[in-house]
Automatic annotation (TrEMBL):
Record key words, sorted: Membrane, Transmembrane, Transmembrane helix
Membrane is among the record's keywords: yes
TM ranges: 109-129
Protein name (Swiss-Prot/TrEMBL): Proteophosphoglycan ppg4
Region (Disordered) location: 1-31, 63-83
Feature: compositional bias, Polar residues: 1-23
Amino acid sequence: MPTPVSTNQRYSRFEDQQLTPRTPHSRAGRAEEAFTAAELEQVHFDDDDDYNSIIQQQNAPLLASSASDSFPPPRQVGYRSRGDDYEERMAAAAAASKRKLMDKIMARLPLAVYSSVAAVLLVLVVVSLREPEVLKQYVGVPVANGTASAAVASASVGVAVDLESAPASAPAPSATGAPAPSHVHGGSVPNGITRISYENYTTFPLDPIEYRAQCIEVTPPVMIMHPYWLPHELMDTVHVDEQPGYALKDGEAPICNRTITYQLDGWAGLLVDLGLIAQFAALAKERSATFFVDDRYWNRGKWTDHFENIAVGPEPDCRPPRPEEYVACPRSARHWIVNSRTARYHLGHMFAETYEDPYGHNLNRAKPIYDRAAQALETLIIPNNKSVELIGWAREEMQGVIDKHYQHGEDRRRSFKDMPQDSEYEFRTQGYIGTHIRRGDQLRSWHGASDDYVPIQDYVDGVVSAWTRLDLELSKNDTMVTPVVYVASDSPAAMQEFSASFDLEQVFSLTASKRAELRELASPRDYDQNEFMTLPEDVRVKATRGMVVDFALLSGAWAKPGELIPDATVCGLSSMICKFSAVALGWNRAFGEVEYMGYLDKQNSRWVEVDNQGRVVPIWNAFTAP
């Protein structure tokens, strides 16, 4: 039989005590009168075991001894009595409640202040976007024409006139619609236009870094959305042909009405310069400006050592302005000069917003900028006679390598030459893949990789997969031959490692040329821009010529109908050579049939990027400054 539960020992202390049930409205000694709210707050102000607490309900018995801690102090217990210290306790309770309220207010005060400041800033942002000149008035900045609305209206009209109706023979209007500024020492300055003074300089044109400093000075630290050709502030410098009494000498050509000059500064690689020239030449055409290239600070010889002279525009017989009249920022100046150091101030977010296709997706969004670069490469950036000769020699040797390994190679080449000029096969290829491997000071673009450079094996895999995917020519025994490759690299070690993965007789480069004049153009070491600037001039000129030849063989650039171009180009996006190769290949050959959503045609694309490998969308984007 189970042993009966005995409570004699456990509850012996209650034998002589009268138990009173504990409820929310009754306490020992107060069966008929509950505590007031203030008294309860005072009693349990710091009590973590309040009756409503889950912990209290689990740990404190419903019935407890009057000696227990759950009971209030004896002086607070009385039948129908509040006690002698009631007023003191009530005052203390009120003070505690007030302190608690103030603590809450102080804790939430910073949030309220920050919210108020954010609201004020939001209002200022809205005002600055919609009525920027009104905001300038409030802060004390002078506004042209007396009112903010008049300044904004005149600026809008000025841009339209400049782009669409400015006569070629008349001085270009400024962004306010007024005549272009006349800035000479002691000369007058039109209202609302700030004078740019070069009185502290003695050598012109300025050094590229000095032009960059000018852009830093006039560019607001916080960029505000505004039309691309409408500056934050109207600024320009002295124009000698606008001064009273100016007259042309007999037989002297007039100064161009408006110009854009690209300054070759030596601070960037050759293909960076070519990509930027392509973009700014397109802007010059849009602005009805004459485009020039200035090579006074170039460290690769003269522009005409490698390419034909560029001077195109609506006034073919005009001459460039004095170097003292060039302005780097703002771009709305009459004679705008730009280089690789200042391009970032002009090819940023607002450039993309203005010139990308706003309705396009992915690759299609950048199509307008791509087309502008392609047109400039075809019509403006033309190799000179010496470069054409070197490129021809290299293509001739590459053709010999191809003919050695292809069935009926001569017949195929002749049939492609006979294709109609407008045929889509006008540049039908002969069966080789161009590969560019960048090392030196240019690390890979994909930051998720552990390697500083794209592994050589990725280039090898890119060549093999493209060769197979494009179903290139079969050999005489009807089996796929190993790829025929033209390889270019700034690193002799990388080129040697890559070539070892293929039949050496099917890999061609400048290093392997039979002509000494081509071999001496090959890069002897990994390219580092800072080191390159210290080399002797003749070495830099040869390296630049080698890059021109390499780019032509890698991408098919500057090929005439029927001439040899590659089936595909394998490269890494961190190099500008890779990005510009997509332009030289042509949109459809580079990306295939790009569909509406702008995705690459993986089956037919001939531009093979092995760095990001499609992990970044879009796979190709517009040119950016270094």
